[in-house]
Amino acid sequence: MRPYKTVFVLTVFVSVLFGLISTLRPILIQHAFDNYIVYSNSKGFLHIIFLIFLCILIEALLQFIFIYKSNYLAQTIIKEIRLTAFSKIINLPVKYFDTSPTGQLITRVVSDMEAISSVFSQGILVVFGDLFKMLLVLSFMFYVSWRLTLISLIFLPILIIATILFQKYMKHAFIDVRKYISKINVFVYEHIIGMSIVQVFGKENETFKKFKLLNGLHRDSHVKTVLYFSIFLPIVDVCSAIAMGLIVWYGALNIIYGGTVTVGEIIAFILFINMLFRPLRAIADRFNVLQMGVVAAARVFDVIEEPDQSVNSNISYFHDQLNTGTIHFNNVSFSYKKGEDVLKSISFSIDPNKTLAIIGPTGSGKTTIINLIMKWYQIDTGSISINNINVDEIPDAVLRRNIGVVLQDTFFLADTLMNNIKFFNNISDEEVYTAVKKIGLEEFINKFPNKYNYFIGERGGGLSEGEKQLIAFVRTYLLSPSYLILDEATSSMDPVTESMIQKSIKNITNNRTSIIIAHRLSTIQHVDKIILLEKGHIVEVGNHKELIKLNGKYANYYYQQFVNE
User: Fold this and answer.
1) What is the pTM of this model?
2) Structural domains of the chain, count
3) CATH number of the domain residue 13 falls in
4) Cβ distance 18 to 63 under 8 Å?
5) Is residue 504 part of a domain?
6) How many C-beta atoms lie closer than 10 Å to residue 202's C-beta?
7) Which of 12, 224, 368, 415 lies in disulfide reach of 173, CB 3.0 to 4.6 Å?
8) Dihedral sign (CA 402, 406, 410, 415)
């Protein structure tokens, strides 16, 4: 933080120096009128002109330094805050994203950060400079003429009251502005991602109408801020103009009747009033920047302060302990919503290097088991252990490094097949070629144009669902995880792709502790154990032959699926 402090102190010093020098100009102009112009002293007048010109040059230089350093400070701080926020987001538990729309989080990391940046580049430091300049101006005004100063400040109470009211109403208006920006981001993101569904159901017009409504609300909140500005700024200008008029009126009468006021003082006070009222107007403007920044900062720090599930433990110790072992569920109960149990006191074990298949109707709790093993959600009661170590004690990084997961909904980069297979891992091309050969997918890769250099498009748009899963198999296999979890979805695939997936499953689960969420029972006949779930309960356990012989629910599912084929 030391470089920040240095830049901050330098910026404050430059702001103070800038205010001091700019405030000297009216004094120099007064001196020029009262001591040189009135007496036709051209030589002394030229000296004053030179000093004024020098002050202007120094002001320009100081203003450049102030603008550059304040913006540098703002961007440096925002860089760190944005890194902190994104680091927090990628380490938050999955359940956080169930209730936090993606577009809203994008707003936090992008547009809210820009609002915070403005606090440093256009807010705090500038307001400090303006306030300091106003104090200097008032000091010089009283030094030159306390009578003219009091006349100048007649409307100051009105301006203070107007500023307080203005700030109050602007705060509420800017909260609405930030709220609707976030809603627009969420809406646009969700509907671009789901554009195919929007078009399939022919909801283009309804979607446009909803966006038009949100856009209108956002406009209305902005118009409120414009309305408040339209009222406040003329008040400042009118008060400033009247104050100048009073100074000229009083000063002129004083000079006519032989008073002590000079022409130089009148001119100096006209400049002083402008320098006094202009910062007041600017401070009100800066207040809006501060309001937006404060609102944005509150939203960003709400994310940063969210608790994560990281565990500070001996990572190397846990990594060695998880190389192999039994996965055990002991009376595990879980609910996404309180009072609505998804799993109800289930217990089972998966022996080392064995394969377990979990089947059951939709909503029975199959995917929930994956979520709990990976610590994406915390169990309500019971315990889950791997090699007799409670998963709650295992650091997330170690757990997820040792467990490879292939889900139905797989994430892909808008990049080549090779880069999607490597997925930021330090893996050579040769390792990829070897893995593809071992899994038996060489022919699958070779069918693509440019093979490994085939560009698959955003979210894997150039791949079918089956092809996505095959690429995900290769990606996970390359990490050599000790345990493997597969959400095997082949119900809607063609026979050729399904055959490749079944072959790949056998290859990557060989000699590895594995869990398969099964959708087609024909793909799990070879596994060591099958669990049938219904409404959060385990109703049958055994291998394929044992369950068929039992002639219970599993057999009924199997024969129904076989007949339907």
Assistant:
1) 0.64
2) 2
3) 1.20.1560.10
4) yes
5) yes
6) 8
7) 224
8) positive
Classify 334 as helix, strand or coil: strand
Q: How far apart are the first and last CA of the chain?
A: 67
Task: Indicate whether 146 and 214 sit together in one domain.
Answer: yes
Domain assignment of residue 129, given as a range? 2-304
Residue 310 included in any domain: no
Same domain for 322 and 284 = no
CATH of the domain at 486: 3.40.50.300
Please check whether residue 389 lies inside any domain of the structure: yes
Question: Tens-of-pLDDT digits for all 565 residues of the chain?
Answer: 455 677 778 888 888 888 888 888 888 888 888 888 877 788 888 888 888 899 889 988 988 888 888 888 888 888 888 888 888 887 777 777 777 777 677 777 877 787 777 777 776 777 777 788 888 888 888 888 888 888 888 887 887 788 778 777 777 777 788 778 778 877 887 777 777 677 766 778 888 888 888 888 888 888 888 888 788 878 888 888 888 888 889 888 888 887 788 888 888 888 888 888 777 777 766 776 777 777 777 778 887 777 765 544 455 555 555 667 788 989 989 888 887 888 888 898 888 888 888 888 877 888 888 888 888 888 888 888 888 888 888 887 788 788 888 777 777 777 788 888 887 777 788 888 888 887 777 777 888 888 888 887 766 676 777 777 778 878 887 877 888 888 765 544 566 666 777 777 777 777 788 888 877 777 777 888 889 888 888 888 888 888 888 888 888 887 776 655 5
Q: Is residue 370 within 8 Å of 487, Cβ to Cβ? A: yes
- If asked whether residues 490 and 546 sit together in one domain, one would say yes
